Amino acid sequence: MTILRHWRRLCSAALAALLGGAAGLANAQNCPPALPAPNPALLSQPPAQAPDRGLLWQLEKDGRTAWLYASIHIGRPDWLVPGMRLQAALAASDTVALELDLTDPQVMQALAGPVPGRPALTLPADLQTRLQAVARRECTDLAPLAALHPMLQLGQLVAQSARRDGMSVEYGQELALIVQAQRRGLRLAGLETPQGQLQALIPADRKAALEEIREGLRQLESPQLRQQTRRLTEAWAAGDLNTLERYETWCDCVKTAADRAALKRTLDDRNPGMADGIVKLHGQGRRLLVAVGALHMTGEASLLQALRARGFTVTQRWPEPR
């Protein structure tokens, strides 16, 4: 099997489970063009001097070293090629640990199924109308996603909106690292359970869920969303931790106490559990490369702080601190 065909199969399996089946793009004049496939030669043999993107830390504990990479869940086709420092971290590792192991069929099945503790939510007519209007604008058929919680449908529309700027979840770092791990014969591991991650993304309280959906639609209806997504991804690509640290000040997404609670639930509250997962794998003698979303590296309750609290020495290796 060619590496490009393997990447496509990974994309299809991941998207089908995460999104309940790929949402079709309408054949309309204002729809974004299809994104190009990655260069299979660059995936199979990344250039030794490929540019570095994201951020990379070295972790040390008990006389052994691990690596922590700040990933991003959407990207551009050329971002699938690992930079030279990430290649070195892959070469020094025997296990790649992600938030979830998307190659595990049980994980994928759980992502596509009902969320424990989160009952089905039927949107009021006004929110459903707005959701459908955004879907039409983003050339997305919501019918294949009907079984998913509206919060997850909303997330799909955010991902679709990025296609207008040449980005997609297919080019996120998770799939890029899975391709590289499997090409190099490395083991894959997950730091979270799919049920736990979905519970973090979806509020248990119906009123809170509706408030978050209403706020998410407001952002999708605003022309500023694409600008904010570009700023986030460009900061990641440049390794600009300062801009990522100030995310709340420019994202137009933290306006109320409810917004702050949602951000805490989806980021800060997950960091201790992921840190415990890293401790467990490190304690098993694994030579780890860990990749977790970049915003988990920010704030006083960041994953970096959680790892320091568990005895790791954490040293930034890329970009090199000034």
Describe this structure in words.
The protein is 48% helix and 11% strand. It is an alpha/beta fold and 322 residues long. Strands 4-3-5-2-1-6 form a 6-stranded mixed beta sheet, sandwiched between helices. The longest helix is centred in the N-terminal third of the chain and has 17 residues, at 3-19. 39% of the residues are buried. Residues 1-28 form the signal peptide. It holds the Pfam family TraB_PrgY_gumN.
**Adjacency order of strands in the biggest sheet:** 4-3-5-2-1-6
- Describe the main β-sheet briefly: 6 strands, mixed
Order of H and E elements: HHEEHEHHHHEHHHHHHHEHE
Instruction: Quickly count the helices.
Output: 15
- Radius of gyration over all CA atoms, rounded: 19 Å
Helix/strand structural class: alpha/beta
Low-confidence stretches: 15-23
Work out the strand percent. Answer: 5-15%
Basic shape? globular
Amount of helix: 40-55%
The overall average pLDDT, rounded, is 91
Number of strands: 6
Total domain units? 1
| Distance N to C terminus | 44 Å
Keywords: Signal
Protein name: TraB/GumN family protein
Organism: Roseateles subflavus
Pfam family, one: TraB_PrgY_gumN
